[in-house]
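Recap slide: TetR/AcrR family transcriptional regulator, sequence and predicted structure.
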Amino acid sequence: MNIDSTTTEEKIINATFRILQKEGIEKATTKKIAAESGVNEITIFRKFQNKKNLIETVKEHHMQIFLDKIEEIFEFDEDEEIDAYLKNNFNELSQLSDEDFSIMKIAMEEVREIPERKLILSRITDLILGKLEEFFKLQIEKGKIRDVNPRILAIMCFSITFQSVVLWKVYNKDPNVEENEYSDEFLNILFNGINP
């Protein structure tokens, strides 16, 4: 659904997202959404038929915004250096706003409530892993890194970069170090290992 920001649909979608952020999927009611958006419940049902369709539209809308940002972060230039690429990924991810990461909170709540619903998280993971794997395949072909399994390397870097930022942004687990120090140390360990 393509949504115009000045429409009633956009008001409802934004209000629904705010309610989902504050109260979660189960506590989000069409009555609360109507009050938050300044429309009546009948308008919500006329535009979206039911709460389930509305929530799916909201999740899809905000997920696409988030995926577009993630894709832009993980794009690369063929001549880009490995350390610059990985450090840039981490730094740009950490600069995403809490609002950007709200869709992750909603997705994680959804998985807790309905374990078979891992679609949102899978889309994010697949996008990032695909970009990282493509980047590492190119680096292997260019002889910049030794011939390792690019998928395993992608998973490792995904875990360090994206999951670290999720810990900070979604779970408020601050590592008590500056971002640059963290990314420099991560790259040092990646390139030099942990052996003395």
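The chain has nine helices and no strands.
The mean pLDDT is 87.
(End of recap.)
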